[in-house]
Design brief:
heterodimer, A: 246 residues, alpha+beta, seven-stranded mixed beta sheet, B: 648 residues, alpha/beta, 4 domains, seven-stranded parallel beta sheet, 24 helices, 38% helix, 14% strand, globular
Chain lengths: 246, 648
């Protein structure tokens, strides 16, 4: 009998994102890469616009519903490839949670500034004074920006804050915390200069629980050859190309 | 690309958790239309093998694997291949080796365990490389000092902020094909993989060159000499092999450059087995028709002779090349010559031309090259601006001053030399006699008569036939004294081997070596090695024909053009043997021009031809169509008009 740890490791990784907004239409893109970064599948949606009933019914959670429940499931359902994990850079997709057939993880760029608890006010002053990309960050923030291997310690105040998502500050999009996402279900790990939020309670299609450490180990082999952020740019370019063709 | 067409934003009925229709959910469920792209995977019955990076025999000699094709499903350890020690190909018996690891083409679907093993192996090898840093060979040594140090291997791969992406050719119109290019990883990801190790970190413009070539079915890489066209072509071929887009590649180059190309492949892509097409007719026929040789190198001289082997008349060719690369493609600029015809007969799917001088004489040169690349695409008789517009997308041309701002400067000085009185007297007499003779010939005069006189006069500018005096030689010796005293090295170019042979004894104290058409091919590498390594050898005498292309002589800091070639492109090629990546210091170029002679007039024409080249390649407007050395130019050197019979 084959023990679970002897099972052949998945050799493909999914990258899932959604672009645009409900008013103009949200477009989902899903790219499957092999171990060395070559594309094997790509799927994208037409622009999806909610109707009035959906806007009323879902309110603040509308984007989460569109991206996570609708687009993510439609796209990931297209592939028959076994995936080591699915990465996203769009927090609205996190609402898909455990509904996908592979663990869903969120990628944060190093430049997604992480402001330490209590530093929010100082950070806002600094940003106003210096602009987003220059000047000195508050001491606590700078430590984390400069430290490529920083990750909150387990059960620490940082991690608690991360779970509340109160200190995640996206320097580019200033995305507010996503309604409908339970941040206590993710834990961050550092992978090179980027950080990943990995699910803590993922249960695979075969009913087996896959822990953070196993997901992290699965991803390590990919990230020796692939940058965890770059493929999202490929998706963006491919969606633009698909849009041109109508 | 497939797509679903139904249900764009159409509500779909949804059942609630209890399985009963949920009225509130009626309007909230989408059926999302999805468009899909899937990679097409070719599954041939057999695949060629890429060698491991290093395969050594018991004595530590590097082994070269004869091309081998294997059935799919073979595993490392199962396979025995024939291998030959690289340094003793001719005498050593074949060695049968058990190959512990190998790659198939394509190698883009690795198994997770195998990849991990390879990555660990590559890391160890890299550590070994670091320990043996001083052992790099001649190809790499010069470049090493010029390139930035390769960064250490981080635990995780990190893409740069603005990575270099594969260019999507405009002539690709199908959505599936365009997405196929867009979705490819950036070059940094590809080259950053530890399995595809690069000896040096490529420059940014070189990555752009690779991105340009990768997607091109026909293209001209026309970088100025010394910018690394060879490396860009090899790296792209390597990527095409790895991605499975190419399985059979043919590279055609001038004969003297075959060993250079082989050496460059060993350096930049050691895993690719290279077959040089050479030897007797039967062997060449066999080599042309080998079904699974990944990379073959042939020379232009062979193309016409072996045409029956690669393009047999009346039957299908045995081998259709996925890619044919023509190095120094100005060799086919005349579309009517036999070499051009032979090149066009090679069965192929895509083709590139490499040349530092796509326009040597006139804009028609490009027409000849494009006749090979994409027959009929570029028509004769267009203005330079029209040509530039038509082919702009398919030519990539960068110059050193634009991309290699760190390259030491090239200092060009014209040494205007007054002939000695005896020399000038000989010159004057020859000119007067020659012009009288041309005049007397009237309409029966031909171009070759004019050329005869030009050559005669140029030779007198080099050496006086009566006394053996040479004002240029006196000046050259004076300059070389300084070169030798400072321990530096110089290249002296001449159009004639006879001139080089006269120079050699006169320059004996500088330890000269000679590299010309008369130097046997087997001795040429030794000549270069002596020039490179012998501290007493300060000068190499080269003919333009043999020495102006493909050689890397970055360690020479002085170039002397003892006499001038007919067009500036060849002169640039010659100068750029020294002024290229890896040049340690400024390169001083001295062009000898004899005052008040035909050399001054030729110099003026060369300047005009240089403007023509710039007009086409930099999209400048408003220049005359043809500024080559026309018949009028040639006869004008002697204040004569071209006869009417020739104008017809």
């Amino acid at each position: 009998m084959t023990r679970p740890e002897e099972k052949k490791r998945p050799t493909h990784l999914g990258f899932l994102t959604a672009l645009g907004d409900p008013a103009r239409g949200v477009i989902g893109g899903f790219l499957v890469l092999n171990l060395v970064g070559r594309p094997t599948e790509f799927h994208c949606t037409a622009p999806v616009r909610p109707n009035r009933a959906q806007e009323i019914l879902y309110g603040a959670t509308l984007e989460g519903f569109l991206c996570g429940e609708q687009i993510a499931q439609a796209l990931v359902g297209r592939t028959k490839t076994e995936l080591a994990a699915i990465l996203t850079n769009n927090p609205n997709i996190l609402t898909a949670g455990n509904a996908l057939k592979a663990p869903l993880a969120m990628v944060f760029r190093r430049s997604d500034v992480c402001v330490a608890p209590g530093d929010e006010e100082k950070y806002a002053v600094w940003e106003k004074k210096t602009g987003r990309n220059g000047g000195e960050a508050p001491e606590a923030s700078r430590r984390r920006i400069d430290d490529e291997n920083w990750a909150p310690e387990e059960n620490s105040e940082d991690e608690a804050n991360f779970r509340r998502r109160s200190f995640f500050y996206d320097a580019f999009e200033r995305t507010p915390p996503t309604p409908g996402v339970d941040y206590s279900a993710w834990r961050t790990v550092a992978k090179g200069r980027n950080r990943l939020a990995l699910p803590t309670d993922f249960v695979g299609p075969d009913g087996r629980a896959i822990g953070v450490d196993e997901i992290s180990a699965r991803l390590d082999l990919f990230f020796k050859s692939i940058d965890s952020v770059e493929p999202f740019e490929r998706i963006r370019l491919a969606i633009e190309e698909a849009q041109k063709s109508g | 690309m497939t797509s679903e067409t139904s249900g764009a934003n159409e509500p779909e009925r949804r059942e609630n958790a209890q399985g009963t229709p949920d009225a509130a959910a009626d309007d909230v469920r989408f059926s999302i239309p999805v468009r899909s792209w899937n990679r097409r995977v070719a599954t041939p019955k057999t695949l060629s093998v890429l060698c491991p990076r290093r395969l050594l025999d018991e004595n530590g000699r590097r082994l070269e694997i004869e091309t081998k094709s294997l059935r799919l499903g073979a595993r490392p350890g199962d396979v025995r291949v024939f291998a030959i020690p690289v340094d003793s190909r001719r005498n050593a018996a074949n060695v049968e080796r058990n190959v512990e690891s190998f790659y198939f083409f394509p190698q883009d679907e690795p198994d997770a365990d195998a990849l991990e093993k390879e990555l660990n192996g590559a890391k160890k090898e890299k550590e070994l490389d670091g320990a043996n840093d001083g052992e790099s060979d001649g190809v790499g040594a010069a470049e090493k000092s010029a390139r930035p140090e390769k960064p250490g291997v981080p635990e995780f791969f990190e893409s740069p902020e603005n990575p270099t992406r594969i260019r999507v050719p405009n002539d690709v119109v199908k959505m599936e094909d365009r997405l196929g290019y867009i979705l490819q990883p950036p070059l940094e990801t590809w080259l950053g993989r530890r399995l595809l190790e690069m000896p040096f970190e490529p420059f940014g413009y070189q990555k752009q060159g690779v991105a340009f070539l990768y997607g091109s079915h026909f293209a001209v890489l026309a970088d100025e000499m010394g910018l690394g066209k060879t490396m860009q072509a090899i790296t792209t071929i390597r990527l095409l092999f790895r991605s499975g887009e190419c399985r059979r590649v043919l590279l055609v180059c001038p004969k003297p450059l075959v060993t250079n190309w082989k050496r460059e492949f060993e350096f930049w892509a050691p895993e690719i087995p290279v077959q040089v097409i050479e030897g007797k007719s039967d062997r060449r026929k066999w080599l042309w028709r080998l079904p699974n040789a990944p990379l073959r190198i042939a020379n232009y001289e062979l193309l016409n002779r072996d045409r029956e082997f690669y393009a047999p008349e009346g039957e299908d060719p045995r081998v259709v090349f996925d890619l044919v690369v023509l190095d120094e493609s100005q060799r086919i600029k005349n579309k009517a010559n036999v070499t051009s015809e032979a090149a066009r007969a090679i069965p192929r799917r895509r083709n590139w031309a490499l040349t530092g001088t796509p326009v040597e004489n006139s804009a028609e040169d490009l027409v000849g090259i494009f006749e090979f690349l994409s027959p009929g695409y570029l028509k004769s008789g267009l203005k330079p601006s029209e040509i530039s517009k038509t082919v702009g997308e398919y030519i990539l041309r960068r110059t050193k001053d634009k991309v290699l701002t760190d390259l030491p400067p090239k200092l060009i000085r014209d040494a205007h030399v007054d002939l000695t009185p005896e020399q000038y007297e000989s010159y004057r007499m020859a000119q007067e006699e020659g012009e009288i003779r041309l005049n007397e010939m009237g309409d029966s005069v031909t171009l070759s008569h004019a050329f005869e006189l030009i050559i005669r006069l140029k030779q007198i500018c080099n050496f006086d036939p009566a006394t053996g005096e040479s004002a240029k030689l006196d000046r050259l010796v004076a300059d070389l004294e300084e070169v030798a005293a400072s321990g530096r090295k110089a290249i002296v170019f001449s159009q004639w081997v006879a001139t080089l042979e006269r120079l050699r004894p006169k320059l004996a104290r500088f330890g000269p070596v000679e590299y010309s058409g008369r130097t046997p091919t087997k001795d040429r590498d030794a000549v270069i090695d002596k020039f490179r390594n012998d501290p007493n050898c300060h000068v190499i005498l080269m003919s333009y024909g043999a020495g102006s292309v493909g050689l890397n002589l970055q360690f020479a800091e002085y170039v002397f053009l003892f006499d001038r070639w007919w067009n500036p492109a060849v002169e640039d090629q010659a100068i750029n043997r020294a002024h290229r990546i890896g040049a340690a210091g400024p390169v001083t170029v001295t062009r000898f021009v004899s005052v008040a002679t035909i050399e001054e007039k030729i110099d003026r024409i060369l300047q005009e031809k240089r403007l023509l080249s710039e007009a086409i390649l930099s999209d400048a407007k408003g220049l005359n169509y043809s500024m080559g050395l026309s018949q009028d130019d040639i006869f004008g050197l002697f204040n004569l008009k071209a006869p009417r019979s020739l104008k017809k």
